[in-house]
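pasting input
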Amino acid sequence: MIKKVKIDFWVITTLILLGLYLLFMVYPLYKVVNQSVIDEETGRLTLRYFIKFFGQAYYSRTLLNSFKVATATCTISLILGVPLAYLYNMYEIKGRKLLQMLIILSSMSAPFIGAYAWVKLLGRAGVITVAIKAVTGITIPNIYGFNGILLVLSLKLFPLVFLYVSSAMKNLDNSLLEASVNMGVSGMKRFLTVVLPLCMPSILAAVLMVFMRAIADFGTPLMIGEGYTTFPVIIYNEYVGEVGTNHHFAAAIAVIAILITMLFFFVQRYLTNRNRFSMSAMNHVERKKSKPFASFFIHLYGYGLVAIALLPQVYLIYLSFRKTNPGGEVFQKGFSLDSYYHIFDRMGSAIWNTIRICGSALVLIIFLAILISYLTVRRRNFLNATIDTLSMVPYVIPGSVVGIALILAFNNRYIPLVGTATIIIVAMCIRRIPYTIRSSVAILSQIPLSIDEAAESLGAGKFKTLVKVTVPMMFNGIFAGAIMSWVTLITELSSSLLLYSFRTKTLNIAVYQAVGNGTDGRASALAAIVTVFTVLSLVLFNKISKDGEIMM
Amino acid sequence: MDVKITISEAVKKYGDFVAIPDLSLEIHPGEFFTLLGPSGCGKTTLLRMIAGFNSIEGGKFYFGDRLINDFNPAKRNIGMVFQNYAIFPHLTVRKNVAFGLKNKKLPKAQVMSKTEEMMSLMKIGEYADRLPEKLSGGQQQRVALARALAIEPEVLLMDEPLSNLDAKLRVEMRTVIKEIQNRLGITTVYVTHDQEEAMAVSDRIAVMNRGVILQIGTPKVLYQRPANKFVATFIGRTNLFNAVIRKHGDGMHIVFGNGYTVPMTNLINVEEGQNVIVSVRPEELVIVGNSSADKTNCLVGMVLYSTFLGLNTHYVVELENGLRVEIIQESQIDDIIENGTKIRMVVKVEKINVFTEDGKKTLVK
């Protein structure tokens, strides 16, 4: 029999998706690479921007700085996060669910907001700095520069390590632990020789996430770096800075950034592949009650760490209720709701924009992720494998690079998207979809093929099967993932800061501007609103993901 | 609605690997037909070709006189029961059973009444509003069966439906399946690797190996008159002996290694001096006494050990040439023969089977 390629619904879907990726990702990235090697004056091929970057210490040093920040952040996040995950899963902790929610919450805000709050707390004129000086006369060490960046990013990113490692530990079979005790390995030795190696795949995955976020973040160094420049900062400055911008140079730095992150990605891949194995627990680990003394320290460590990590958000909420002068720049004695009045009066559109833009992005992301994951899992072929690979590319592309690439590609007469909400939505989709696809693929792979076949044999067509059976079965996992996506979207800054216009200003950008204008009262109130959004989303998440019960 | 299934010259390939080279088969209307074979023999592949989940590389598949090769699974009007049940976990039992009926766009009242009817037939009415995860394996199996039967399929296909159940439930469910099939009279194709299960439920069985059907027959025929050595050893247990054909006067005899000679009346296509394989099932060996007895035309061996199983007692016996054979004897009230005892045995002539030296063909009429 001759094999025919039937043009059905799925073939068309494949082609459309491929077209979208070519138009909105491959083409923009090509524009970046293209611009980085074209001389702005002569229009000829040149490497002068690369030579400029590596020739001048001011620029090339930023690469090293970024690398140092990312590596140090990974290390500290591991040191904080892994023991927390271990204690959380091995011992009874009071208020487990609450603790986990607080840990997630502490990671769920734009790092620059954390940086801003830490400056308010520990900066030269910070409340803690001033208080310590007044009481003891000691000047605490400088928070600006490398240390500050490290503090902010580590506290922001250790929850990722916690979540990844914690899920690995949930899959740890209790009998493995019992077997190792049986063979004389227990306590710390067991942690190092059995538990840690078993969690290694997750640890490596967490390291990749932390590294990518730390190296691509530019709000934090901008806010607290004070001369300790990382390369996302110069990309931003070269692109939209106030003086001497050079788009070609910015593009060249973007290319270098992608190369660095790609290199790290492949190293991580290599290490992961060497450590590949799968676990699924028949007997879950039973959490032990610890002795009172140890229990005290376990609780102190867990809640103490979370308290420190949440301090910036709490402090900003406190500030948002403080009375300010009419301009909003200076705090005065007493409390008031003036900052909020001002926001709802003047910046209400930012709230609406956030809901409108992030909401559209979210719907699109879920829709596309379901289609792509279905294609890659259930209809594997060359084109769909290509889509799968393409969809993973944004893993290694810093947000600011996505922003620049889209501007370069769509700042023209034919597809004039710059300044529209669409371009921000596109950027959000590109950046967030890889995560949603990964989780959808994981969920879909768990659904046995025979379920699809059962539906088909009962007379449901392929599309009906997807809508009536597959998607509802994936619903729980997808919805839980969607809430997480939602939170990341409303706290996104690095690409939207390049892409926003006055009509598409979101909450997070409003915070950024308010901070820049020095209107601290309004900045805190805006940040508080973002936090409220986040908390509400997390509460919803907890309701839905409760003991894996299917809720329709 | 009883429908005949005809398969002619079916071919299945996975890349260069030929899973089924050339297979033809006819399944009678209303028949309970089983595909039996070791894992990897192609039985599930064939079932999935009938269901429409596997592509067909060659040959023709008919339901009645309709060629179904190009029908997609949704159009074949089959009911399928999967090894892992494939019950939709997000739907209640009732919605699972009603799923296929809804796809037929039947009036709502009819969907409801048919659903209730199937649930009561399978005795799962009391769990109607539960989610499947709250059900036991046997109950889930009933839901899967109810769901498959609700759409009044022309053909019921079952892919190792009992393999995930524990031993006791397996026996219970196979009775349920057999009864339901009997009552509805629906043409059923059943796949299993468990020969006892196949014998218990089937009208006819096709024994498969490496994509080829080695024999089709009723359980009785397969057991008593296997067409080749593979079927003889796969269905039930058997002892294999090498022997030679001798012609004495008119009749053909088989002569065992130690000279034990058995006159045969039902052999065909045999000639003097031909080497053959004799298949003697454990219950076809009869112990005729110990070595002090005077009988000489018999097999001689020593009891290695015995297993008392209530109804029967099994003996493992080593013959003079080192071959070990198994004997099953109805348990006697007097003592079990002690280990190390020398015994003499004869075969039940009318029951034993004789194959060509390569084991591929039977020499019994």
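fyi The mean pLDDT of chain B is 90.
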